[in-house]
Amino acid sequence: MIDAHAHLDDPKLAADLDDVIARARVAGIDRILSCGDDLASSRRTLHIARRHDIVRVAVGVHPHRAASWDADVAQALRELASDRLVVAIGEIGIDLSGRSAPREAQERAFAAQLALARELGLPAVVHVRDAGDAARAIVDTVPGAAGMIHCFSEGPDQAREWLRRGFAVSFAGPVTYPKNASLRAAAAVLPVDALLVETDAPYLAPQGRRGSRNEPAYVLEALAAVAEAQGVPPGVLAEAVTANARRIFGRRWL
Known about the structure:
Layout: E1 2-6, H1 17-26, E2 31-35, H2 39-51, E3 55-59, H3 71-80, E4 86-95, H4 103-120, E5 124-129, H5 132-139, E6 147-150, H6 156-164, E7 167-171, H7 181-189, E8 195-197, H8 219-230, H9 234-249
Parallel strand pairs: 1-2, 2-3, 3-4, 4-5, 5-6, 6-7, 7-8
Helix pairs in contact: 2-3, 6-7, 7-8, 8-9
């Protein structure tokens, strides 16, 4: 089993990170993708992966940090991405919730990082919030861009649009929330080979743990919700998403 997206360098996990990772192992998690949100975060995350063999890394600039994007950051990310523990460019994307960087800065950083991922032969880990059409329009300008849509938050039709563009769709804790029937409907219509599950730890704890800190061991609760939507046993889906992650992230994932 895998957790396809977490932020292990987050200060909320700093005090007991070794225990968090140990609990993930006990839960059967043998890979965690930990994602950077700027250059400093990406470096911290790579340092964590060098200490914990369960961890793989995505390096990138989050839309919240998009104003920091420049040629020097691009070159630094290119150098980080040469490390054997780096399996993706991310977390990148578009966030139009009103709490992120100016849209122009986001679009510039997102397009450039999609192109970087394509240049390096790596998948992209994409953040989309209140911005599905805008994000898809930018993806369409980078032929061959592919990867995963992290913490999917749209509906079935939009899930199919991402699938058509070559992206897997990843579901996090919100798929367990009672009000989010549209997420479960999206999970139900996707083929099993297009699915991933994640925690986004330490954020977005699943329904049974809402209000508390999230951690990778809790990915099993998102898995159970997606398995129910798919009409398959959780164990069957666990095998499928593990195989999907291996295919998407390639030989460095192993």
